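Our consortium's second objective concerns turning raw sequence data into structural hypotheses that experimental partners can test. To show how far this objective has progressed, the report includes one record in full. It was chosen at random from the queue rather than selected for favorable results. The single chain below, 141 residues long, was entered without modification.
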Amino acid sequence: MANQLGVLNALDAAKTQWYHFTPIVIAGMGFFTDAYDLFSISLITKLLGRIYHFDALSKKPGTLPPHIATAVNGVAFCRTLAGQLFFGWLGDKLGQKRVYGLTLMLMMICSIASGLSFGKSPDGVMATFCFFRFWLGFHML
């Protein structure tokens, strides 16, 4: 504990230099990426409803059923909490640089996989979409 306080006091006493802004930029990129992901899903659910649940006779053709819309939107909040706890702990154990590289790799794989969601029925496609969407945002720090 005393060592941590010494590091914090040294950072407070140091002149502001470029390396002070690097963690701010990295944290800001993660924050805005996650915020964009949470914002854009509301627009994407309307498109998914038009593609997988189109009913020409309905007054609102192409809306997702409530249980599917709730799952698509709700998975984001569950994964954010679980991911930040897990990868925060993992970052303390393995180091932030290594974990940051791992999260970037997972982000690329899961974003491609969520775009290529598969299934025989519309509900199956939504289930795989939610699965990959969970893992896409699980690692956001």
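The partners drew two points from this record. Helices lie at 2-13, 18-52, 66-94, 96-115, 122-138. The first helix runs from residue 2 to 13. Both points have been shared with the crystallography group to help prioritize constructs.
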